[in-house]
Each structure stands twice: as C-alpha cells, then as structure tokens.
Amino acid sequence: MKQFNWKEFAINNIVPIIFIVLCIACLPIAGYSGKYLVSQIITRIMRNSFLVLSLLIPIMAGMGLNFGMTLGAMAGQIGIIFITTWNVVGIPGLLLAAIIATPIAVLLGWFCGKMLNMARGREMITSYMISFFMNGVYQLVVLYAMGPVIPIHSDKVILPRGYGVRNTIDLINVRQSVDSFIQINIAGISIPVLTIILIALLCLVIVWFRKTKLGQDMRAVGQDLEVAREAGIKVERTRILAIVISTVFAAYGMILYLSNMGTLNTYNSHSQIGMFSIAALLVGGASVSKASIKNVFLGIVLFHLMFILTPQAGKNLMGQAQIGEYFRVFVSYGVITLALVLYEIRTRREKAESAKQLAQLQREGAKA
Amino acid sequence: MQNVSKEYNGNPVLKDVNFKLGQGEVLGLVGENGAGKSTLMNILFGMDVIQQTGGYGGKVLIDGKEAKFASPLDALKAGIGMVHQEFSLLPGFTAAENILLNREPENKSVLSLVFGPRANTIDRKTLQKQAIEAITKLGVSLDPDMLVSEMPVGHKQFTEISREISKSAIRLLVLDEPTAVLSEKEAEMLLKAIKNLSAQGVSVIFITHRLQEILDVCDKVIVMRDGRIINELEAEKTSIQEMARLMVGREVGTGRIENRESRPLSDKVVLSVENLWVDMPGETVRNVNLEVHQGEFLGIGGLAGQGKIGIPNGIMGLYPAGGTVKLNGQPIPLNNPRTCLSSSLAFVSEDRRGVGLLLDESLEWNVAFPAMQIQDKFLKKYLGGAIKWRDQKAIEEVTQKYIDQLQIKCTSSKQKAKELSGGNQQKICLAKSFALEPKLLFVSEPTRGIDIGAKALVLKALREYNREYGVTIVMISSELEELRQCCDRIAIVTDGAISGILPATTPSEDFGILMVGKTKKEAK
Amino acid sequence: MERIKAMLRSFGLPRLIIAGFLLLLFIIAPFVGIRVGASITDTLARFGMNSLMVLAMVPMIHSGCGLNFGLPLGIISGLLGATLSIETGVTGPLSFLLAILYSTPFAIILGWGYGKLLNRVKGSEMMIATYVGFSSVAFMSIMWLILPYSSPTMVWGYSGNGLRTTISTDGFYSHVLKDFLQINIGTISISLGEILFFAIFAFIIWAFLHTKTGTAMTAVGSNPVFARASGINVDKQRTLSVVMSTWLGAVGILCYQQGYGFIQLYQGPMYMAMPAVSAILIGGATVNKASITNVIIGTILYQGIVTMTPSVMNNLIHTDMSEVLRIIVSNGMILYALTRKSGASR
C-alpha cells in the first residue's frame, strides 16, 4: 500500500498523462515562443478557471459532471446583454450584470435540480438534455422576446429587423475591465491582479464550503443517498442546492469570461463553454465522482495548451490548419468519452475485485 | 410492553406479547425467521411500516408511561437506539464522521446569519472528542480517523453501535443480529462491549441466532414463535437444547401432517456436490457436500443468512461459485446457466420479481421463454431451420394448459406478469420450469410471501410433480414444517455448510438443534 | 369515462399535446394560404427520408441499451459506404446498392466494437453513447481531409485533396427511391418507393422480433437477470442489437441522402441522433420499450411538425420560430422520457 506503484499511478492518471505527452509532442512542431505560450496560458486560466471551478460542487454531491452549467452561462449572458443595452461601463457594469444574472441562475438551477431528482441514476444524460432544452428556451427569449416583449432597444444589441439580439455583440464597455483594473508586468507578461484575487477567493470559498455543514451533507449524499436520508439529511433539497450553487457560480464565471473575451457570441458561447469546461476538468485528472481544485488548474493548463498548439502543429505538419482544428474538437469529445468509459470500467473492476477476494478467502476456508 | 399485537392485511403476526425490561438488563430475543421478532422491534422503534399497515394494538410503556412513537425520531428522543442488520454507513467517511452523521458539532460563523445554519463550519475537534467518548463508552478499540471502506466488518459494526450510543440520553439499545457477520474474535469483543454498556445502565435487547452468545451475556431470554412469546427464561438456568426446542417445537396437533408414507430411497445418485462455495451476498456458501438421489424430494432448511439459498443459485450459475458438481457422474461447469439448463436442471428462484419473471411481458412469454431458448420448443422452423419463428399457437396452448393445471387466476394468457398476485406469479414460475420438463428441479422459497391457499396449491403441485413424473426435486425453504410435509429427507445448512441430513419424519426439535449449529460447537 | 381516462394516460399527455398541435396546424393552414396538399406531400417525403433512422433506435431499445444517442456511428458507416460508392464511379440506382453494400462491413465492425464498449459500461450507456457519437464524428472530420479520395465530384476543386463538406448525389443515387413509383393524387404526391423501402426494413425487424433470437433480445431488455437465468448470453444479444442499430443507421442515412440530394460530411452527422431519438419517443416509445408502430407514428408526428410550423408561423405572424420550437419540442420530449418514474427503472 505504502509503496508507490507506478503502474497503478499511470492507470489512474491516464488522461493527464496522454495530454502531457501530446503537448510535449506538439511543442516543437508548433514552434511558438515560450513567452507567447506563457502569456496565452495565463489569459486562459484567467478566463476559464471560474467556470471550471463551478463544476466541483455537484461532483461532490455525487451528481456527476454538471452539463447543466450551460444554464448558468445563459444567465450570465442575459446579464451581459442588459448592461450592454443600458450602457453601464466597467466594473459597475459587470457587477450589475452579476446582480441581474443571479436570480435567473437560481431559478434555472432550481429547475435543473428538480429535474435531476426525478432522474436519479442518470443525472448526466439528463443534465445534458436539459442544457439542450433550455438552449431552445434561451433562443426563444433572446431571438424573439427581446425587443417586443422585453424592452431592449439598443441598436448595438438588437438586430436591424427590430427584435432579437445580434449574433455577436461587441462588449467594448466591459472589455478587460476586471483584468486591467490592477495589472502588473513581469518580464513582458501582464498579470491581472484583480482577476487572480477573484479566482483565489472562489477557491477559498470552495475550500471553506467543504468544511461547512452543507458541504458535509453534500459529501454524505454523494456517497450514499439512502444512508444520508436515514440520518435525517434532506437529500432532495441538498441536491437541488448543489446544482443551484453551481449554476450561480457558472453565471459569474461566464460574465468574467465574456469580459475577458470582449465579444459575446449570443448563440454559441454558452454551449461551447459547457463542453470545454468539462473537458478541461477531466483532462486535469478529475473523474465523475472525484474532483479537486488541483484538477481544475492542471486541466486548464493542459487542455488549453493543446488548444493553442494543435492548429499550428497541424499546419506545420500537414500543411493544413484545418486538421488541427478538427483534431482539437476530436480531443475534447474524445477525452470526455475516455474519462466516462474509464470511470465506469474502474468502478466495475473494483466490484469484481471484491468478489474475487471473497471467493479466494472462501476457497482457502474450504480447503482448511 | 403489554399485550402488543399486530396484523398485516388480516394476518396476525404478533399476538399478546408481554415483557418487561429493567434498567441495565440485557434481554436475549430468539426465534425462527418470521416468528415476529423484527415486527416487535419495528413497533418499539416506531418504524413507518407499522403506521402504514394500520398501527398496532396494545401498549408500550416506558418508565410506566405509555409511549406512542410516530416515527423513529420520536423513539430516538425517548432514548431508544437500534442497530439494524445492514450497515448504514458512508464508506468515504471516517468512523468519527459516521458516528456523528448529521449531528456534527458546528462553529457559529457570521456567514450563517446570511446563508442559514447550514453555512456553519463543522467543529472537527469537538467531533473527534465526541466520537472518542462514544467509542470509550462502548469499550472497544476503534480508530476514529479510519475510513469505513478500509475497516474490517467488526469495526463497521462498532461504528454503527457507537453512533447509537453517541446519541444523547440513550437508554435502550436494540441489536438485531449484530454478530452474524462477525468473526469469532470480533463477536467476543462485541459481547464484552454489551456487558460494558449494561454496567453503565443502558438496557440492551439482543437478537441473535447464536444461542451460546445468549447464555454468555443475557440476563433474560425470550423465545418467540408464531408471533407469541413461548417462554421467558432466566439465562443462567437454561440450556441451548431447551431454547432450540422451544424455538422450533410445535404443539402436537397444529399443522402436523403425518399421513405420508416413508419411501425407500433410490441408490442412484443423480446430483453430487463437493466442496461447493458460492459468493452470494448475504447467503454465502462456504463448503457444501451433498448427494441427491434419483426421484427423491430433498428439503434444504436452515436459518436465514446461513447459505441455504446460495446453494441452488451457485449451482445454476447465478452467482460466482466453485467446487465440483456432478450430474449423473458427469461434472457440469459452474457459472454457466445455459449448460445447467441444457442438462435438464431447472430452478425456480426465490427472487420472483427480480429473477423469476419478465414482469412487463405476457404470461405466455414467461412460461414458454426458457423452454424455447434452451430446447427449441414452441418454434416453427423455416428454410431448413435457418429461421426459427415463434409458434404463437403452441405457446398459447402450453400456457393455457398450465393456467388450468395450476389454477392460475388471470384474465387471459396475454395478461402481463406484473398484474398477477404473488401466489399466481409463483405458479407462473413453476409453470415456466415445468415447461422445461427437467429431470431435477431446484425450488427456492416457493411459498415466501404468498397466501395460505396458494401455498397449499404450490406445495401440492410440487409433490405431484415429484410423485407422478418421478422428477427429483430439491426444495429450499425457511419453513421447517413445510419441508417436513413434502420432503423425504431434509438437510440443514448452518454457516455455509450442511450440518446434518435427517429423514423428514424426525421430530422438529432435532432439526432445531442442527439449525443453531450445535453440532459444530460440540465438534470444537 | 374511466376507460377513456386510462387510454389517455397510456397515450401520454405530451404526445396528446403534440398531436393536437399538429392537428391545429393543419386546420389553420388553409386560412393562412398554405396548400394542405403540398404540406402533406412534404411531410410524407420527410417521413420517407427519416423513418429508417428512427427505426434504427428499435433494436437497441429492445435489448435494454437505451436510446441510441450513438447513431452518428451508423451514419459514419453510411457516409463511408456512400463516398466509396461514388469513388468507384458507378452511377444510377446501382450506386445506391453499392453504397449499402460498402457500408455494411463498416457498420458491422464499428457496431461490434461499439457494442462491446457499451457492455462494459452498463447503466450509463446513453451518456457514453452520446460522446462516442461526437468523438467519432470529430475523428472522421480529420479522416475526410486526409483519406486519399480522388473522384472529382467529391474532392475540393482547388486543392485536389480532402472531401467537400457537401457532395451532390446527382447522377448517382439522388432520388432513386423518391422517384420510384411516385403517384399523384390531386395535389398530393406520394413516393411509394421510399415507403416501400421503409416497409421492407420494418418488416424485417418485425419478423426478427418474432424469431427465437428476437425473443431473447426482448427478454434481455425486459429483465436481463431473467434472461441470464434462462441461459441467454446477455452481452452477445446486446452486441447483436447494437450492430443491427448501427447498420440500420447506415442504411438510414443513405436513404436520407437520396431524398435530400446531398451527402453532408464533417460536422453534419453530429446532432442527427436527437431528431431520431425524440421522434421515436413522440411515437410512444419509452427508454426500454419500442415498437414499429411507435416508429411510424413518431416519425409522422415529428416530421409533420417540422414541416408545418415554419410555413404556418411564417404566414401567421411573419416570424420563423420553427427552429427554436423544434429544439424545445424534441429535447423536451427526450427530457420527459428520461425523468419519467416508470422509465427510471434502468
């Protein structure tokens, strides 16, 4: 037990290992400078970590990967659309966006949690379908209701036909406003201090959360629903809360993400972000039932390194950047598939292992 | 408790139960399965099942005052704790966390004013302290920081008990077969712990099948049978034999059917089992050696959890098994249901709804399916056998035949299996294996959970099948009387091995002694 | 009254709403200046194109593998068959047969592997199937770029390698079934060829489910423990069902292409599973029970709504909300099936 087992370590961390190997292989082929890569990675960490961190709590509560985080992203986007319309600039604008997004995210999260309680045992596929379903509702609101029903009349936001939001919105008002608030330069790489503080704060909140009564309850519910219920924990409510918290964090994460990007892809950003965040978390070595803050940051670094490297590597190797583009799509989906399959096989093997041990014991007993 | 009685759907399961328990006393409760022990404890503990099935009669008095518990929480408040047979522990939590699950001490924090009390952080130090207190009170060695998943079974049991003890004002502790899963050494530790508790003024009700343990720790023993307290004994003045006799013995004239001829046993051995082990959770078989003779009706009895049910499940390949099983001298491979079925073995499972039936399909499907798959019956063949088409007419005919023969109550042979009552479902299971026309039939708990009328019919059908068609039957049942009615010989399983085989005409008392593992104890 | 209520309950509220909605659309249609005949023609044409892919759900549901979100795998086999057939240069109806022939070994191999995988992840088939579908589509996107195809109808004109995103089936098998035995009744024109083609496959599946093996497959889906205790090799039956579903998916996409006139490569097959899944659910199937009737009713209802809403909406409020409505209806239907208590046993 105490002895370090290389083989076991490799099997348990196969996903990050594949990624490290992949990135190392692509590194010389792509031929980027170290400085460029470091600054890119820092940008990506700033952009994505809040979103990926939002996935941790449902995993703790045993509800698997929350594909419904897209719902939070939608709420964040609605907040952003409003402040762009009202022309609120800078950090106050982002705060206002967060204030608008919170009740929407709570409502959506509550809906999602309710649904997941009805589909126990297949939370992931259900949360995935919820994100698809709500995407339809979101489009209905944003594409048709905004304008005639919800009073939004800014030319920057609304399509020329008079209703519906444009495909892309330029977020000049809030672009980089958090990142550039306090910025320091180290060796030519700019480091956004306020963003780092915010992310660190969220990490602290998560660490603190694990120590609270609610956090303890969630871990209990995640391990065994029935035992937790017998002990008097309100199981359904705890599960809904886990999803609500995750959705709200995802909404804030999305607002930070958009402010960093500077543009809003009204109809694409949220669904993309869901997939990329989950893939990043899995690349960091998380599984369906276990994830830590360490996984989040390792995952973001590795996943986005791959993301930056592959198109260039593809271009240099095959003469086509397109191959690299498709390759990274393949890798994002592939890594989720691999992680899900490995998780299932591993839990199965553990079960078989215990049966085998029992059989062995009995065989010895029978002989004696 | 005074005059406690209880009915389930008109079937009385408890009649006029009276007993008293003083502070710090240890009361042993023994009885066969279905004697009413669990129901009695459920009433005491205010379990929901009792309310849902119409409450109970009589009174429960605590300190002379009547107590009516609407839920287990009320019982807890009154200082009654119960440790169930199955563990209710979280594998990823430490012993300490499990002991104080959902009763964790908290640090008040400012944030809880905003987010409610659940935002309080947990006070790990106090948690640790309280857990250790409970463990010390129990008087066992248990590491509070150990994860439950890494614990041996005994420590899990201690964690469970510590949790009950840690609840404030615990005065009465009910232990439901706590030693069943423990090794001898662990059981000894537990018994010591029970004595410890009683010395500290906590009363204990101790349910067990191991009668020696009763003698070791209890002050009083209550023997239950058929929902009645048969006798209350002083532990010091009784013996294992006396208790065993009281447990199984029926008064002359009740349910005794002696109009059975004693048949000569054929010399030919059809099935021989050597060193069989089966990994069936809760019914582990450790080492079974058994010979079944041509044309006999063999009963396998024993208390729950001793492994009798594991035997057919293992032979038929439903659970991982090892050892040698020979049919007519030919070894049959284990862990492969198909070969068993092809070599004319059949099995009626005790788990009707889970294993025995296709609940969502018609009766026709249920009856005809195994015979169709194994023996190519009820099929029309086209193109020289390349296409095997379901023969609807033949299926209907055979189903109708069994519906008539076994008097199955249903609207038609097209009815879904899940719509039938338990007894009729059981008959469908029988029909299914009769359709296979087996040479040897295993029947596991055929009368469990069905009403008396259906019970008699099922047993009659089995007997006829054995007598008239000469099919060898091995019936596993928890009800000894049932076995004695039908069988030629009865084997008793204790601790995953056969503790003895006796002719069915042997008095019940002798079986009772075999059941409680007396022979094994003597052998040591 | 009670019986009517029970019937309504078994029919299911969402299905009732959808059927009622479709009926309403047909009633409104003439008033807003839409020719009902053309709409029916359209619905039937779409039925012919899509029904086989919906049928591809049936074997996997029967064996208890759940809804086949991995349909893209079958589609990929079909695409490989289609492109290989065009590469040979054979034209006309023969190219269609050739495409089916070429896609068969791919469907069998991919389906077999996919089935083996699903056997190892029992209980979370649907989630993994979804992602298996996605990753295989992404993987094939790379392959379409680098596989050495050379037929000038398929590769990019300017670079000379890599397949185009859409390839016309004109001159090959475009409309081979659609124009076969087309009959016109008034304004309605029905392509008997497509319907016949579907009928053949539906009959084969129906017949299969009446054979010994088909019976075993249904039993595996209904209660795997029962099946095992009856001597059935559960994993084998499941693998067989997945191979069947995959192959039907392959033929289904070929049938779709001949009606549509184009082969869509790259990200095209990505979300094709969703409409098929929701169609069979609208037809009354659940996560572990499905019949040929479910396929037919479901496809007609689903495609009816897809054809009717845009035209009616456009003429009624001059806004095309149909795409959004389609997303809500189809995903809502899947969600409904997943969260139903009765379906939650697996």
Describe the structure.
- The complex is a heterotrimer of chains A (368), B (524) and C (346).
- Chain A contains 14 helices and 4 strands.
- Chain A is mostly helical.
- In chain B, strand 22 (440-444), helix 17 (452-469) and strand 23 form a beta-alpha-beta unit.
- Chain B folds into 4 domains: 1-79 and 169-253, Rossmann fold, CATH 3.40.50; 87-168, no CATH class; 261-344 and 438-524, Rossmann fold, CATH 3.40.50; 357-421 and 429-436, no CATH class.
- In chain B, the strands form 7 sheets. Chain B has a 6-stranded mixed β-sheet with strand order 7-10-11-3-12-13, sandwiched between helices. A 6-stranded mixed β-sheet of chain B has the order 19-22-23-16-24-25. A 4-stranded antiparallel β-sheet of chain B has the order 15-14-17-18.
- Chain C is mostly helical.
- Chain C has a domain at 36-270.
- Chain C is built from 14 helices and 4 strands.
- In chain C, a hairpin with a 2-residue loop joins strand 2 (182-185) and strand 3 (188-191).
- In chain C, helix 9 (212-222) packs across helix 11 (234-260).
- The longest helix of chain C has 28 residues, at 93-120.
- Chains in contact: A-B, A-C, B-C.
- The interface between A and C is large, with 39 and 40 residues.
Q: Radius of gyration of chain A, Cα only, in angstroms? A: 22 Å
Number of helices of chain A: 14
Contiguous runs where pLDDT drops below 50 for at least 5 residues of chain C: 342-346
Largest sheet of chain C: 2 strands, antiparallel
- List the uncertain runs of chain A: none
Please give the oligomerization state of what you see.
Answer: heterotrimer
Q: How many domains is the backbone of chain A divided into?
A: 1
Number of strands of chain C: 4
Distance between the termini of chain C: 33 Å
- The SSE order of chain C reads HHHHHHHEEEHHHHEHHH
C-alpha termini separation of chain A: 28 Å
Please identify the structural class of chain A as seen in this structure: mainly alpha
SSE arrangement:
The complex is a heterotrimer of chains A (368), B (524) and C (346).
Chain A: H1 6-12, H2 14-30, H3 34-53, H4 56-60, H5 69-86, H6 90-118, H7 123-145, E1 168-170, E2 183-186, E3 189-192, H8 193-211, H9 213-223, H10 225-230, H11 235-261, E4 263-265, H12 269-283, H13 293-318, H14 321-367
Antiparallel strand pairs in A: 1-4, 2-3
Helix pairs in contact in A: 2-13, 3-8, 3-11, 3-12, 3-13, 5-6, 5-7, 5-11, 5-12, 6-7, 6-11, 9-11, 12-13, 12-14, 13-14
Chain B: E1 2-8, E2 11-17, E3 26-31, H1 37-45, H2 48-52, E4 57-59, E5 61-62, E6 65-66, H3 72-77, E7 80-83, H4 95-99, E8 106-107, H5 111-115, E9 121-122, H6 124-138, H7 153-166, E10 172-176, H8 184-199, E11 203-207, H9 211-217, E12 220-225, E13 228-234, H10 240-248, E14 269-278, E15 285-293, E16 297-301, H11 310-315, E17 321-327, E18 330-331, H12 337-342, E19 345-348, H13 352-356, H14 363-375, E20 379-382, E21 387-390, H15 392-405, H16 422-435, E22 440-444, H17 452-469, E23 472-476, H18 480-486, E24 489-494, E25 497-503, H19 508-515, H20 518-523
Parallel strand pairs in B: 3-11, 3-12, 7-10, 10-11, 16-23, 16-24, 19-22, 22-23
Antiparallel strand pairs in B: 1-2, 1-4, 5-6, 8-9, 12-13, 14-15, 14-17, 17-18, 20-21, 24-25
Chain C: H1 2-11, H2 13-28, H3 36-55, H4 58-62, H5 71-88, H6 93-120, H7 125-146, E1 166-168, E2 182-185, E3 188-191, H8 192-208, H9 212-222, H10 224-229, H11 234-260, E4 262-264, H12 273-282, H13 292-317, H14 322-339
